[in-house]
Amino acid sequence: MDFVYVLLTALLVVAAAAMILKKVDSKLVFLFLGVVGLLVATFVNGASVLGSSTTGSVWLDVFDVVRAKFVSTIGGTGIRLMMIGGYVMLMNHVKAADVLANFAGRGLSKLRNPYVVLALVYIVGAVLKIFITSQIALGLLFMATMYPILTKLGVSKVSCAAVIVSIGALDLGPNDSTTIFGASDIMNTTPMEFFMDYEIIVGPAVILAVAVFYALYFRYMDRKEFGGLVVPQDQGSEEAGELGVPKFYGIFPLIPLTLVVVFSFIDSVNMDVITAHVICYFLFFIVDLIVKKDMSVLMDNLKRLWVWMGDYFHKIIVLISAAGVFAEAIKQLKGIDVLANWCAHLTGAALIAAVALSLIVFGTAILTGSGNAPWYAFGPLAPGIAETLSAPTALLVVPMHLAGGLGRCFSPFCGGMIAVSGMAELDTSTVCKRNILPMTFGYIVTIIASYIVFAVL
Fold first, then answer.
1. Does residue 340 contact residue 396 with C-beta atoms inside 8 Å?
2. Is the separation of the CB atoms in 139 and 101 below 8 Å?
3. For residue range 221-257, what is the model confidence (pLDDT) as tens digits?
4. DSSP letter at 49?
5. What pLDDT sits at residue 122?
6. Does any domain span residue 418?
7. Which listed residue, of 77, 170, 315, 339, carries a Cα 20 to 30 Å from 415's Cα?
8. CB atoms within 10 A of CB 147
9. Across the chain, which distance is largest between two alpha carbons, in Å?
10. What domain range is 4 assigned to?
């Protein structure tokens, strides 16, 4: 029977990968195959997928799982993502994020060692990703600000584009949708605690290691392919144009996270991520009304805000809910449990599991261009496997979380890759190839750092 469980689980995963590669919407794939998997599990096990919480009909229970996943996601993770996503889009729309990116790039432009600047651009961009959570938005901002500077210093276009794609690789910080999901749905903690307790060491270690790798490897590749520094072509002024907003607007993207961090050190006050963003909405709209003295602008931004929140609902929250149904189907088919029990007595079983699970996320991200979808689908499996192996849950969760972002950065289907390559007037495959080794190196560092932090120390 164990073989049947493993076979059915493998078939479900392969079917999902095949459908996604055929460009079937991942939300539909996860929801449809999740229901099919739950129906098969009910038939094979002869028991309700809800256990003692059954509705009274084992077949109706399958669809009640769908209801439960959507209700729990929308009421918990979902409202957080809508509030945060709306604020991110608002900051992009009013060009506050542009001001922040310009400020970050101004100091780097004064340096003259091209590959040191390249490495620092990656570090600064990776840090800004905590505040500007959209990989595409951050990439486009850096294309406008840092790309002209780097190419003028003689770094090749393909090296510049590859680094700018990868500044959005690590989905760190309590504002990121994947962090919120990992905290709420997997580790049963707050996004801030998930970031500070589990990823604050591993993430920066990966960023620094990849930055050094970029400086050395891209210097070597530019010499190999172009004979050294590339003579820049006429590309216009490197200075960003006037954005039409006060410079202090660059502070607004930083305020939500600042509030959460500051109040996390005050035991008597509990500052939720939602509360922090509500405060920031009120603060921004009041300041913007004072600056622009135009109520119609405020009303227009509010209308856009509801639309942006709705976009986050159908793009991300529905995906998380559907992926939750799929993850539940994998659990009920028991194939993962069988494999975990087989591995439990192996030497280094926890490390093997961490590598295997994160490779699934890493590989799926390469094939689909999305780091979020595989994380939402396979992340919930980690706690049960960790319990079976008597391993720290974080040893499995942290590499899985970070692997998806690293994998998408050399996927030709990644939105950030397509956007940046297009602006650089480069073929997507060229930029993807340039990023294979750096992102694979980043994945290896992620595994090593996670094992040291959660299993050795």
1. no
2. no
3. 999 998 877 765 444 434 444 667 888 998 998 888 7
4. T
5. 95
6. no
7. 77
8. 25
9. 73
10. 1-76+315-333
The SS3 assignment for 78 reads: helix
- For residue 116, give every residue at least 6 positions away whose Cβ sits within 8 Å of its Cβ, in sequence order, or none: 215
| CB burial string 176-187: b at 16+ within 10 A, e below | bbbbbbbbbbbb
**CA–CA gap between residue 376 and residue 448 (Å, rounded):** 23
- What is the pLDDT at residue 236? 42
- For residue 245, what are the CA distances in angstroms to 94, 367, 400? 8, 40, 40
How many domains are there within the chain? Answer: 1
**Nearest in space to 99 (alpha carbons), one of 282, 246, 267:** 246
Report how far apart, in Å, the C-alpha atoms of 333 and of each of 31, 117, 238, 337 are: 16, 50, 57, 9
64 within a domain of the structure (yes/no): yes
Q: Which one-letter DSSP state was computed for residue 232? A: P
Residue 27 lies in a domain: yes
CA dist list (Å): 205 to 128, 201, 225 = 16, 6, 30
Distances from the Cα of 412 to the Cα of 23, 193, 299, 409, angstroms: 13, 34, 39, 8
The whole-angstrom separation of Cα 97 and Cα 105 is 12
* 3-state SS assignment for residue 450: helix
Residue 63 lies in a domain: yes
First vs last C-alpha separation in the chain: 39
Closest to 371 (Cα-Cα) out of 221, 168, 211: 168
Q: How many residues are listed for the chain in this entry?
A: 457
Q: What is the pLDDT of residues 61-119, one digit of tens each?
A: 999 999 998 988 887 778 877 888 888 889 888 988 888 877 776 766 677 788 999 99
Q: Identify the residue whose tokens are 């609902």.
A: 313
Q: Report the SS3 class of residue 250.
A: helix
